[in-house]
Amino acid sequence: MQLFVNLPVKHLERSKEFFTGLGFRFFGASPDMASVVISEKTQVMLLTEPVFAQYVTKEVSDATKATESILVLGLESPAQVDELVDKALELGATSAGVRPDDGVRYQRGFADLDGHHWEALCLIQPAG
Hints:
Layout: E1 3-9, H1 12-21, E2 25-30, E3 33-39, E4 42-48, H2 49-53, E5 70-74, H3 78-90, E6 94-96, E7 105-111, E8 117-123
Parallel strand pairs: 1-4, 5-8
Antiparallel strand pairs: 2-3, 3-4, 6-7, 7-8
């Protein structure tokens, strides 16, 4: 099974530049949509807001004003978490979320250029 998450974006080219800057590659593209490859079985489809609206019966959310979901990327080390989030912030993202301090996970969040909430997470192996 594969997972395709669909996100509305205001400016597709700007969003593509952002995710390319984070090191992600794309699978296919059209003038109105592009697919960010997260892993072999997961892709995030970026759709312009008018195209996204064609697939829904409710109003398209404004992610800069409300959080509808949190997209979490599982990474292998705290250094990878810091690298990804720091790069996102350099590319124009803003800090988002609350950093847990539970000794089990290392996690930082950011809101992308359209306000979608992303978290980078690494599970920390307890000493034992």
